[in-house]
Specification:
Number of strands: 11
Distance between the termini: 14 Å
CATH architecture of the largest domain: 3-Layer(aba) Sandwich
Oligomer: single chain
CATH topology of the largest domain: D-Maltodextrin-Binding Protein, domain 2
Largest sheet: 7 strands, mixed
Number of domains: 2
CATH class of the largest domain: Alpha Beta
Shape: globular
Structural class: alpha/beta
Strand content: 5-15%
């Protein structure tokens, strides 16, 4: 499934490669503090160190011993460690990829988080519980990621007196103005790879048909329905109307990001894992010379409301084998609080799950960044569907079927019929009962 790669994608964006060597059993420190062992893959090492230091300052009777992993390795190591009774008190859980492989070794969250959950976004909690095949909540998510979002060169728009587009018509005017003033710039970029076409298609289709992705991929609805045909037509209209150049479909890998970071693209469509671009400090640290960056939901193509697919991520759980569950709960409660989020959310990878949380002004300095992050938070906190895919179907059929429509080699109606035929072929198990 596509969502099983979320942890990998987040880890690649934040480039966290640190791995702390060794693992020890729980022990009392010389000062008499309770020591808890925390295993995770996210956030980055430096961020975790800062968060732990802040927690320990507030709780001098508890120390946290951290062990971090790369995402792919963590998916293998945590289940093995838990099944063998390793001394772990707090476990980070890649919600989509790992919940069902580790849930049998975790304390249900209702047994320890009853006083924490009321402050957490209910949609994110529901998504996390729904991932488990028994519908039980085993971890509480730090936040959520969503896609697609539209990042934009705020300085370029300001230079040309342009506003952030909210409709396709406004977007077309901006693109024409940018092309006239800066012919060397590609106005709109995003990945042309097949996997990304699902993200684009559902975001556009769900502007008028919210829940379409859930209804088809996780439910019993068909691909050959009017909402799919209309969504494909709407997506193709971006190319027909000259908002997006057909050349964009040849952009692979990191190329769209490189063009935007170099000032050679005005709008860059990707996921919230790129929210770090909003931070001037992040841009300076990474040699990105853009002076101001904002983000917004995808413009409305044919009416409706902004849409995004999102999924809770970064779950925190307590293993059943832990002998220090009260201390573990205190640490998790801190990480989920405003005080904890003020430390780890600076990286902007996740939209925090704490209801009403606002990122510190010191993290985002410009109006475009502040307003953009607020807008991204709003749509991700109330998504139109979850980020879910039948990965084999996406790779073998769906992505290329969408590309065929965009390239004009097949009609939207024929593509929808092809999708349905393949979907029901028996080669791609799917749906709630399969």
């Amino acid at each position: 499934m596509q969502i099983s790669k979320i942890g990998l994608r987040v880890a690649a964006i934040i480039a966290t490669t640190a791995l702390l060597a060794g693992c020890s059993t729980a022990q009392e420190s010389s000062g008499g503090a309770t020591e808890i062992n925390y295993w995770t893959w996210f956030p980055p090492q430096a961020t975790l160190d800062a968060a732990i230091a802040a927690f320990e300052a507030e709780n001098p009777d508890i120390t946290v011993k951290l062990r971090t992993f790369e995402a792919a390795d963590y998916q293998k190591q945590l289940p093995l460690a838990l099944s063998s009774g390793e001394d772990i008190d707090v476990a980070g859980v890649q919600v989509s990829a790992m919940t069902n492989s580790v849930k049998d070794y975790l304390v249900p969250a209702e047994d320890w988080a009853a006083d924490i959950l009321p402050a957490i976004n209910s949609m994110m909690v529901e998504q996390t519980a729904a991932i488990a095949d028994d519908g039980v909540l085993y971890s509480v998510p730090l936040g959520s990621i969503g896609s697609p979002l539209m990042f934009y060169n705020a300085a370029m728009l300001d230079e040309l007196g342009l506003s952030v587009p909210t409709t396709a018509a406004e977007w077309k005017k901006d693109v024409d103005a940018i092309s006239a003033a800066h012919p060397e710039v590609t106005p709109v970029v995003f990945s042309g790879e097949p996997y990304w076409q699902e993200e684009m298609f559902f975001a556009i289709a769900e502007q008028n048909a919210p829940g379409l992705s859930d209804d088809i991929i996780g439910g019993d609805e068909s691909w050959d329905q009017p909402a799919v045909v209309d969504g494909l037509d709407a997506y193709k209209s971006l190319f027909d109307d000259g908002i997006v150049s057909p050349d964009v479909l040849s952009l692979l890998g990191s190329r769209p990001s490189e063009l935007f970071s170099a000032g050679e693209a005005a709008f860059y469509i990707d996921g919230s894992w790129n929210n770090s671009l909003l931070s001037a400090a992040y841009r300076a640290e990474n040699g990105i010379e853009l002076t101001d960056v904002g983000v917004a939901p995808m413009p409305l193509v044919d009416g409706g409301k902004p849409a995004v697919r999102a999924l809770a991520e970064g779950g925190l759980a307590i293993p059943t084998a832990s002998k220090k569950q009260e201390a573990a709960k205190k640490f998790i409660a801190f990480m989920l609080s405003a005080g904890g989020a003020d430390v780890w959310a600076k990286d902007l990878i996740l939209v925090p799950s704490l209801t009403g949380y606002e990122v510190l002004d010191s993290v985002l300095e410009s109006d475009a960044a502040l307003e953009g992050f607020a807008a991204a938070t709003a749509v991700i906190s109330s998504p139109t569907s979850k980020r879910d895919s039948q990965q084999d179907f996406l790779n073998a059929v769906e992505g290329n079927a969408i590309l065929d429509v965009l390239r004009g080699t097949t009609s939207s109606k024929d593509a929808a019929a092809r999708l349905q035929s393949e979907w029901t072929s028996g080669r791609y198990p799917h749906g709630s009962g399969q």
